[in-house]
Amino acid sequence: MTGPLTLGYSPCPNDTFIFYALVHGKINCDDIQFAPPVLEDVETLNSWALKGKLDITKLSCHALGHVLDEYCILSAGSALGRGCGPLLVSRENLELAALKKRRIAIPGRYTTAALLLQMLLPGCTELVEMRFDQIMPAILRGEVEAGVIIHESRFTYAQHNLICLQDLGEWWEKDSGLPIPLGAIAARRSLGGKSIGKIERAIRDSVDFAFADPDTCLGYIREHSQEMAQEVVQSHIGLYVNDFSRDLGVEGMAAIEQFLERGQAVGALPAGPANLRYA
Length: 279
Fold this sequence. Notes:
Blueprint: E1 7-9, H1 13-23, E2 38-39, H2 42-51, E3 56-60, H3 61-64, E4 71-73, E5 79-81, E6 87-90, E7 104-106, H4 112-120, E8 127-129, H5 135-140, E9 146-149, H6 153-156, E10 163-167, H7 168-176, E11 180-188, H8 193-212, H9 214-223, H10 230-240, H11 243-246, H12 249-265
Parallel strand pairs: 1-2, 1-3, 7-8, 7-9
Antiparallel strand pairs: 3-11, 4-11, 5-11, 6-9, 6-10
């Protein structure tokens, strides 16, 4: 390993909350050095992961299934939980079966939201990719009949008189009995087990710092979420940062493994290495 490691995550409050301490020198990172982080929307990070651009990256669990030859999952920093999945929304109270022939907006080809929709409604062909914050406006303009919304849109769709046709996270939880695996942190396998272990500890310590002193992180969080109301920021963190963010544990790993297996079953993912972790 030579030089600082490149690191990417999203500007969403859950990620800036998690990584604040790590990128501001608040914790001991051992001998691991990080380059200044790049903050991009998750689908950009997904596309970069497919190209192997960063050493350590946030990515959707869907995208993870495409890059396991080069990357392994870290046990810290993930976004899993219950009651926090993407929502399928529309202006009209449409039957789910009718949506297979309708235009549905998705927040990117490699997002977890897109794969959950494919699992729920296999055979959907009219999927329209767009940035996550453009989906509700597109529905309201009638450009698409429905859309899968993520992030802060979960908290604001009702204000725009949109109807939730299906909570995809709720569907996943009932069907699998496991938490919904939304996003994960992955590192290059070529970094080696020793360095990967140090990176995991640094991220876990950063999560612990944020939990212990959340107010210290707020300035950084607000810097990257200026258009969000404070209550939306707090709801976002409360929904997506939890014990799974600190350590996936057995249940978290089981959720990701089953998610990837189901993705393979519907033909959306290639067969990957047996071990998601570094080996």
